[in-house]
Amino acid sequence: MEAAAQWLAGYDEQLARTAANAKAADENLRRVSGSAASPRGEVSVRVGPSGALEAIELTPAARALEAEQLARLILATAQQAQRSIGAQVVEIMTEYLGDGAALDFVKRNTPAAAGVEEGPDDEDDYFANPRVVVR
């Protein structure tokens, strides 16, 4: 009978720890935010914990862009901020979940980490917005 009481007490402790960890993870995830700016600074965005846009700022230099170029630049900048959020979410959840299937699920359902190449650049975009490398 005492073994069952000990098991139940241990189970109650485990549930309390799990609930506390879930609450802490929720609080940490609510504070996550991301921001990004386009390479030449025409566009800046801020996204909230869910990755939804909270703010977009355009500098006067954005007026020099064609509408289609500006739209692509806003989208790319927002995606960069969302990848930042994804990296933060994975970092937070690693602390609570550790390696395993649950963390793999989180990783599969968040934007790829910033700096990870997602494929070759569009050739037309390359010539319309050439990158400048300074050494």
UniProtKB/TrEMBL annotation:
InterPro entries: YbaB-like_sf, YbaB/EbfC. Residues 26-45 are annotated as: Disordered. Gene3D superfamilies: Nucleoid-associated protein YbaB-like domain. This is YbaB/EbfC family nucleoid-associated protein. SUPFAM superfamilies: YbaB-like. It comes from Saccharopolyspora cebuensis.
